[in-house]
Amino acid sequence: MEEREQDKLLGIKTVGTREWPDNKKIHYYRYEATPYKALHALSENYKFKDADTIVDFGCGRGRVAFYLHNRFHLPVVGVEADFRTYREAIENKIMYRLKTRNIAAPVKFKYGLAQHYKIDKKDNCFYFFNPFSIPIFRKVIYNILRSVEKDRRNEDLILYYPMQEYEIFLEIGTPFEIIDKIRVPGENDEREKFIIYQLREQLY
Ligand SMILES: C[S@@+](CC[C@H](N)C(=O)[O-])C[C@H]1O[C@@H](n2cnc3c(N)ncnc32)[C@H](O)[C@@H]1O
User: Fold this and answer.
1) Mutate which of 59, 68, 88, 134 to test ligand 1's pocket (most atoms within 8 Å of Cβ)?
2) Which residue's CA is the nearest one to ligand 1's atom 2?
3) How far is the C-alpha of 118 from the C-alpha of 115, rounded, in Å?
4) Each residue of 9-60: pLDDT tens digit?
5) From CA 99, how far away is CA 101, in angstroms rounded?
6) CB of 109 closer than 6 angstroms to any ligand 1 atom
7) What's the CATH number where 159 sits?
8) pLDDT tens sequence across 91-125
9) How remote is the CA of residue 84 from the centroid of ligand 1, in Å?
10) Are strands 155-160 and 193-199 parallel, antiparallel or unpaired?
11) Total domain count for the chain?
């Protein structure tokens, strides 16, 4: 099914891209949504039901949050640094909620930088589709690790279309371990996949 048709089923508008101005784009990457086909593959192969709250760092117009909320009825939080894009996520939420009043779990969007987001002790599944540069990614991961040190729990990271720098940092600089790789069917591009990392409570 077309991306626009899938959007329509959820009552949202997430198709398209948005670039950052030249002085910001070195660290902040452009808006582009995870394809529905990829989200479908992820949902078929990853146990979202184990998550308490899913956080999408650099959530854009909210596609990942709405899709997962709709499919798994789990609390979701999206963090977005571009105000216009954040506003679009909020507009989407108004329309989406008209269709999904029956799902009790909350959908929240926060306007701000991912590296300033205060990790909640219920947040235990973090989604990244190449939102920002490696120095910012590092800060976000350290925030997650600090939160886990304080409130011990299992944590999963989901990386879509992963950048090699993210992979190297997670392998060398953190206790996260790869637990799964999920390929998007029908795609030849090597990077068309999800890598799932886990930090298990008993391992640290
Ligand atoms: C590739 S898009 C991914 C959108 C969404 N996660 C998805 O997969 O559909 C990356 C998003 O991250 C946002 N972003 C970039 N730097 C950010 C930062 N430091 N904090 C929060 N959001 C950021 C961009 O504005 C953009 O909307």
Assistant:
1) 59
2) 31
3) 8
4) 999 999 999 999 998 999 999 999 999 999 999 999 999 877 889 999 999 9
5) 6
6) no
7) 3.40.50.150
8) 999 999 999 999 999 999 999 999 999 999 999 99
9) 12
10) antiparallel
11) 1
Beta carbon of 126 within 6 Å of any ligand 1 atom: no
Hunting for tokens 């959530």 — which residue is that? 59
Show the domain range for 172. Answer: 3-203
Report which ligand 1 atom has the smallest distance to the Cα of 78.
6
C-beta 156 within 6 A of ligand 1: no
Q: Which residue has the tokens 């198709």?
A: 15
To test the pocket of ligand 1, the residue of 129, 130, 138 to mutate (highest count of ligand atoms within 8 Å of its CB) is 129
The 10s digit of each residue's pLDDT in 144-156 is 999 999 999 999 9
Tokens of 85: 């894009």
